[in-house]
Amino acid sequence: RAPAPTRPMRRVFAAVVAAVATALQPGPVHLGRRSALALGAMGLAAGPPAHAFFESPTQQTVQKLASALPRVQSLIKEVADVERLRAKIPANYEDDAYVLRFGRSVLSPLAAPMGEAATKIGGDAEALYASFGEHLAGLDEACKQKDAARERAELQELEISLSGFLDLGKRLKYDTDSREDINGFSGTTGVIYNKFLFRAG
Questions:
Q1: What's the pTM value of the predicted model, to 2 decimals?
Q2: In this structure, which of 78, 115, 126, 130 has its CB flanked by the most CB atoms within 10 Å?
Q3: Do residues 155 and 72 lie in contact, with contact meaning Cβ atoms separated by under 8 Å?
């Protein structure tokens, strides 16, 4: 036979039952400070609203260009290293293939939306778009010629075109920050666009 509950135990049980009954009663809910803070923290944990559904095509293009810029800047440094090494050791022409694939898979898809955005942004945007296309073609040709010096020069011109375009967008209050996701975060540049992944693909 189980022992009968002691008086303290009965009091605890009664308090629990009363608390549950109170919680189940209909009526206005009054939150204490801690409860309100807890709910607020839960809302923050849910993250910012999915505003991408409401962005204009121009805004989306500007952010794609903003994400591409640090990748181009990183590539310029790599090509400069290749150019320096070729003065000392035999060339590894897979480096040129890597730059060629970067241009075609990362930069070329930006050209068409950049042209559409240029008509909305105005000013020098169309000239910068034309320059982007010109030097993108020049980069392609330099890679075919396996000319690291020209590859670097064309990439630097592409950087200028992208930077100028983003400056114009920023003046018009477009968001020119790169989107921090697996493809947008500049910290992943060395991983997502590493030459060894390009060669392997």
A1: 0.65
A2: 78
A3: yes
